[in-house]
Design brief:
Distance between the termini: 71 Å
Bound molecules: magnesium ion
Strand content: 5-15%
CATH architecture of the largest domain: 3-Layer(aba) Sandwich
Number of helices: 7
Helix content: 40-55%
Strand order of the largest sheet: 5-4-1-6-7-8
CATH superfamily of the largest domain: HAD superfamily/HAD-like
Number of strands: 8
CATH topology of the largest domain: Rossmann fold
Largest sheet: 6 strands, parallel
CATH class of the largest domain: Alpha Beta
Structural class: alpha/beta
Length: 215
């Protein structure tokens, strides 16, 4: 009788172990499959980002949404994406050169990006390509070391002059056609964060030190 009980206990334990092993394997396979799907579906910038030393950004339609309200005097009230802001200040603290080049004029925009540590904020620019070339000379980088992100026709000359042209998902059709990389995110909705994160991951600086956990 005791012998039969031992045999039964053995089979119960064996069954539990088998179920546990199957569950562990299921979770592992599920997690692995999800990781593979995420890796395959994530859009990556088709450019050698390790050589990128600088990034220049448009404001309207890139850092700010395409559609904004107007204040009482008719001036656009631009938006700012908080996660873009985090990535900008982190990139600046890691030594990435950053310029903001806008045709618009806004004290609020100047103050916002100066606060985030962006040293080169150019507002009221008529022809962005001139400002872009002067900025590249000033910081000592060649075009192929620069990523530029714009969303509309005035951005096209700079997109041709830089090494890697990026644009938000809701950029103008001509800009999307000219871009090396079209972000899956719209202007003002994280497209800048998307590009900065990829650059910093290529540099090994994304969330790689205690700088990532403070401002
Ligand atoms: Mg724009």
């Amino acid at each position: 009788m005791q012998f039969l009980k031992s045999i039964m206990q053995f089979f119960v334990c064996a069954k539990r172990l088998l179920i546990f092993a199957i569950e562990v394997r299921r979770v592992s396979v599920r997690q692995t499959a999800r990781a593979v799907v995420c890796a395959c579906s994530a859009k990556m910038i088709p450019y050698d980002l390790k050589k990128v030393k600088a990034i220049a950004l448009d404001v309207d339609g890139v850092l700010s949404c395409n559609v904004v309200s107007l204040d009482a005097s008719g001036q656009p009230c631009r938006t700012a994406n908080i996660k873009d802001g985090y990535a900008l200040q982190l990139a600046a603290r890691h030594g990435l050169q950053i310029a903001i080049i806008s045709g618009g004029k806004s004290k609020a925009v100047e103050e916002r990006y100066a606060y985030l540590g962006i040293q080169h904020v150019y507002m009221g620019v008529s022809y962005k390509i001139d400002t872009f070339r002067k900025w590249c000379d000033e910081i000592g980088v060649s075009g192929d070391e620069v990523v530029y992100m714009g969303d509309d026709i005035p951005d096209l000359p700079v997109m041709e002059a830089c090494g890697c042209a990026a644009c938000p998902h809701d950029a103008a059709a001509e800009v999307r056609a000219a871009a090396t990389y079209v972000s899956p995110y719209d202007g003002g909705h994280g497209c800048v964060r998307d590009v900065l994160e990829q650059i910093m991951r290529a540099h090994g600086t994304w969330a790689a030190s205690e700088k990532a956990f403070g401002w």
